[in-house]
Amino acid sequence: ADTSLGGFDHYLIKEIHEQPRVLRAIAENYAEPVRRLAAMIRESYGSFLIGCGTASYAALSGAYLFSRIARRHVNFAVGSEFKYQEHFLTERSLVIALSQSGETADIIEAVMAAKRAGARVAALVNVPGSTLDRLADFSIHLGAGPEQSVLSTKAYTAKVAILMLTAHVLNGSEHVGREHLWRAVDGVEQALAPASERRVQEIADRIADQEHCFVIGRGLSYPTALEAALKIKEVSYIHAEGFAGGELKHGVIALVEDGTPCIVFSPLDETRDDILSGAMEMRSRGGFIIGVSPEAEEVFDVHVPVAEVGDASPLVGVIPAQLLGYYLAVRRGLDPDKPRNLAKSVTVK
Ligand code: G6P
Fold this sequence. Notes:
The chain has 349 residues and is an alpha/beta fold. It has twelve helices and ten strands. The strands form two sheets. It has a five-stranded parallel β-sheet. Strands 7-6-8-9-10 form a five-stranded parallel β-sheet, sandwiched between helices. The longest helix has 19 residues. The site of 6-O-phosphono-alpha-D-glucopyranose has 16 residues, from α4. GO terms for molecular function: carbohydrate derivative binding; glutamine-fructose-6-phosphate transaminase (isomerizing) activity. Keywords: Aminotransferase, Glutamine amidotransferase, Repeat, Transferase. Its EC number is 2.6.1.16. It catalyses: D-fructose 6-phosphate + L-glutamine = D-glucosamine 6-phosphate + L-glutamate.
């Protein structure tokens, strides 16, 4: 047995379980770097959050968190698309680059372009000494420890936690941010408790033979829905797609058939009524509704309870999706740590 797995069967499930520890360390130790990042955002005129893959969804989550908590507009672009927005860069711009490895080619290229334009670069990066870390004017190290699984999990929640805290600093409500993060630490622990994990495993058993799976969320939960779908598709090869709840009627609803699994993120925020009516539309087309929510709603066929943690809802919501990806892969006889065709870090273009 591989001792570095610490009793787990795979790195993916081991790393999923490391998240409470990673988030706790951020809640305890990151006040100073977070204030500094907030100051850089305040001083800038035009900021861009960029990332690839899972890091792009953390970046999009950041854009929603800054908007909702701090009323601050931060642009978002996936790394490979940033070059088509480069003309917006000035000496007053700030590029906030998110990357687990710090080696993703599209991100490095974007950062080089930002530097050529005289813009400033902040990084949220997990690997100290990586190319991104060295290029950035200021880096926050995620402190998540090495990620061995190709799927990014603990680096994702670390980035979202740091951005949530930063948004609260910008809003002058640092203590609220910290309190929500502490609640999320407990919430993530609950989502990983044996009974919660078993519930997700049962759902995986039930939907493992499906070809398609749809995931919806609104507001803060929209990036979570995209990340949830990515987690499921990259490791189980089930075609999973995340959508903004409001887009259902613009096409997606045509794809829902009898028994199609539909994951619905329904935190107790301003999105609740609208997302539940979307769930109802899917259900009336035969969709099998898997509701991730603090409340057991009538429209759910299966309820995955998560803690109510205010603005930190993306942190607890994503956990069942990570577990679902893992258990779907196991159930389908696939290697959860090494999905076909994917590399841990994409250093070529
Ligand atoms: C690859 C990995 C993903 C990761 C992405 C960005 O596609 O398979 O898990 O999210 O690269 O990697 P980075 O190291 O920049 O976060």
